[in-house]
Amino acid sequence: MRNFDFIGKKTWWFALSGFFIVLSLVGILVRGFNYSIDFKGGSASDVKFTKTVSVEQVRSVVSSVGHADSVIQPIERRTIGELGSEAAQSKGSEMLIRTRELDPKQEAALFDALDKKLGVLDRQTKTVDASWGSHITERAIYAAVAAMVILLIYITVRYEFKMSVAAIVALVHDLLITAGVYALVGREVNPNMIAAMLTILGYSLYDTIVVFHRIKENSTNVVRTTYSAMANRSINQVLMRSINTSLVTLLPIISILLFGGETLKDFAFAMMVGTISGAYSSIFFASPIFVMWKEAEPYYKNLKKKYGKEVVAQATA
């Protein structure tokens, strides 16, 4: 099987990444994020109904009184003693309804409509401060920065500094594209999306390390060839593993996106974009960056001058 020239076509990959990065920046800076109530603040109501109701039924009533952007989640309160009882089987009889902040008149209209159409047994409403979402975001940023610093140190010790920098650049590439696509499609930014962004860090890094590990293994005896050719051969050796890993990861994510509940779809969408971007960046972005930097070293620079034309001729033969 003929090897594909990943490194030789790096200009195309950089141009493609540049296009998506610019598009992502336009989405973030021009269109902006669609923040959920957790970030904008609002009202959170724990509502108990007299009968079993579904999220769709509650959403229909809430939308009819002008609150279509509300977040509705079922609440299940089960104890060991309740398992198998009628109370435990009463799924959907309690809902958490989060809306923008309501004045007394709007609140009364909302719960009058719910009571008339679905029957409200009890409710408790509290105001959600917008600072809670800001706190979550701030902590997520701290966690991401801390993770990148630790990864930078670990990869430098385990492999080398240039690999660690290329891996971190690829992580930023993936996070930026995921956030940009999220902004462009207008999906709601909520804690689930933040969790997905942090999860993407791990997946993207894993795929990159798989490629870098093979490059490191094959770099112990680079003679009569270029570093680019050796790295290209290494990428081709792990290509099917990367493809298979990405596909196996994507299948359950797509299943959640298509068939999961509303609260999981934002998480699944961010994970899907991040997984695709991570699989791409490991091979087409991080590896060419590292190889370009590595070939600036005197030894590999001389090898490229000496054997570069010969290697290109073999690749295009």
Q: Give unreliable regions as ranges.
A: 78-91
| Average predicted confidence as pLDDT | 84
Q: What's the helix-strand series?
A: HEHEHEEHEHHEHHHH
Largest sheet descriptor: 4 strands, antiparallel
**What is the CATH class of the largest domain?**
Mainly Alpha
Question: Rounded to an integer, what's the Rg over CA atoms?
Answer: 26 Å
Described by the principal axes of the CA atoms, the overall outline is elongated
Structural class: alpha+beta
CATH homologous superfamily classification of the largest domain: Multidrug efflux transporter AcrB transmembrane domain
Tally of individual helices? 10
β-strand number = 6
Order of strands across the biggest sheet?
3-4-2-5
Keywords: Cell membrane, Membrane, Protein transport, Translocation, Transmembrane, Transmembrane helix, Transport
Subunit structure: Forms a complex with SecD. Part of the essential Sec protein translocation apparatus which comprises SecA, SecYEG and auxiliary proteins SecDF. Other proteins may also be involved.
Organism: Candidatus Aquicultor secundus
Membrane topology: Multi-pass membrane protein
